[in-house]
Fold this sequence. Notes:
The chain has 264 residues and is of the alpha/beta class. It has 6 helices and 12 strands. The protein has helices at 18-21, 28-50, 136-146, 158-167, 190-206, 229-237, and strands spanning 2-7, 55-60, 78-80, 98-104, 124-129, 132-133, 151-157, 172-179, 185-187, 220-226, 241-244, 247-252.
Amino acid sequence: MKIYVCTDLEGISGVVNFDQSGRDGKGVEYERARRLLTNEINTVVDACKEAGVEKIVVNDGHGSGYNFIIEELHPEGEYIIGGNRKRSFEGMDDDSDGVIFLGYHAMAGTENGILDHTQSSRSWYNYQINGISMGEVGQHAVLAGHKKIPVILVTGDTAVCKEAKELLPDVETVAVKEGYSRTCARIIPPLKTQAMIREGVKKSLGRIKTMRPYEIEFPARIRIEFQATDIADSYERNDWTRINGTTVEKIIGRPQSGQVLKIY
Length: 264
């Protein structure tokens, strides 16, 4: 069995502000968050190995793509790090059996979603595919589903777990904190959340054969609403159709064999 793990940072246990995410500078709090992230990654890899998974590939999906503390990574995993990527899921084998989203956050505009945003916390506001609003959980489920690979587990705050369940009813979720605002949460200590994540991995692997990929219909209508007009200007210059001052749209067909699905 092969499992692909895509990580983010905002949904890791104990992360509640942008200082920790590294958005506004890579200070002491960001370094602490990196350690929390690395510990949760190691928990996932260890749980997968205990369940008999032969290959686990973990993608550093946050920001620069260089957030893992590489000297402390579990030796049984394989890791994708760095920027300038040609596709969202670098290193994913087409015959992977399932995808785990570790440390994800809710879509932009989610009340009490910790550090809620979609793609950019400074410029994006609303994203839709075929009329369905979604955040990064949905976007990445679409990309995995295009390869016929199901999302089996999502971890993060209660808001993103609810979002994941509404889009992917069969997915397992592990809520590691509950938001009281965008930057305040009731957290669960990391040692306990690691145990919860370990159990979530094992449960999801036990049900993997019942989980279906999330697939969209083509041609697909993609619409993005931004927070300001200048971002929409740049998309319009790149062949997106302008809907209004802050919104653009594009119709995409099903990619041909070998082509990469581009949804943003």
